[in-house]
Amino acid sequence: MSSELDDDSSRIRSLLKQQQTLTSKCPEILRDDNARAELLELSRELTAQLTQPDELVADLAHAVSLPAVLSPQRTFRLNSTLFAKRTDLDNHNYWAKQAPDTMADLQSFMDGLYGGPLRSHWLSWFPMSDILTGLIEDEVAFVDIAGGRGHEGQAVLQKTDCKGRFVLQDLPEVINSIRDLDLRIETMGHDFLRTQPVKGAKVYFLSNILHDHPDPICKIILRRIAEVMKPGYSKLLISNIIMKDDQPPSRQLDMDITMLVLSGGLQRTEEDWTKLLGSVGLRIIKFWLSPGDQNGIVEAELKEDTKLG
């Protein structure tokens, strides 16, 4: 066991040294896509070396343990807010509880994320109306998980004029801050690591959520959804960057490194998404690739043989 820890420790030191060499040339990296891609790969490999799944800790604190080779006496979490603010809260819980003005700024940014030729709204090219056709008032049509102030649900309502129920979920602090929302949208305080209270909805929606987190946390989030999906009926729609395998746009590379630094997350390729969703009993129906460099849509449903709960 000791030799394995020594090997891990040596590998981590080697990766850190390579990263330091690259990042010392920061201006050059910003202008060189190949150098940025190399830094991205090093970051991913370093994350793989550091991240150890600990679902109990994650379920309690949105956390991921780092291995004992760094410090046998202490459990670390891959979370910049933890270190910068000396808190056990993850990024979003910290800002929601301790700095609501900052959280409000984030929600404003998310409200205005789309616009312009490179980032037209996903509803302009995704056939949402076809999915929600025929639903009646008592049926839950759309559950917007961690949906902020509800801008996505409102856009879907306007685009589809669906008659089914719409539910917006987020942390209670975010939900309580909402001042302007379509009255047809129900609000619900909810932590996505907890049991999903809305069962059998037609669509469960995650927008810019999973890129915040490493795979162990994402598996918990996805499992909570899969547990309540209705086989052959419910769909999971994930609005997120779908990284190209070869020469991805600079913005996608930038976002990949950004999410790693902020919260230990990453942007994922089609292969990454397939493995991640498959690990919790979901299968990909289609990757909807967007125009420009914006998010795509990952469309998924339960595998036929999935048994959860």
Structure commentary:
The chain is of the alpha/beta class and 309 residues long. Strands 3-2-1-4-5-9-8 form a 7-stranded mixed sheet, sandwiched between helices. Strands 6-7 form a two-stranded parallel sheet. The relative contact order is 0.11. Helix content is 43%, strand content 15%. Helix 3 packs parallel to helix 12 (250-263) and helix 6 (91-98) crosses helix 7. Mean pLDDT is 76; it is low at 51-85.
* Largest β sheet strand count, sense and barrel closure: 7 strands, mixed
Overall pLDDT metric: 76
Count up the helices: 13
Order of strands, widest sheet: 3-2-1-4-5-9-8
Q: How does the helix and strand content classify structurally?
A: alpha/beta
Short summary of the structure?
This protein is of the alpha/beta class and 309 residues long. It has 13 helices and nine strands.
What would the keywords be for this entry?
309 residues; alpha/beta; seven-stranded mixed β-sheet
How do the helices and strands line up, and which of them pair or pack?
Blueprint: H1 2-23, H2 26-31, H3 33-50, H4 55-61, H5 80-85, H6 91-98, H7 100-111, H8 128-132, E1 140-145, H9 151-160, E2 165-170, H10 172-175, E3 185-189, E4 203-207, H11 215-226, E5 235-240, E6 242-243, H12 250-263, E7 268-269, H13 270-278, E8 282-288, E9 296-302
Parallel strand pairs: 1-2, 1-4, 2-3, 4-5, 6-7
Antiparallel strand pairs: 5-9, 8-9
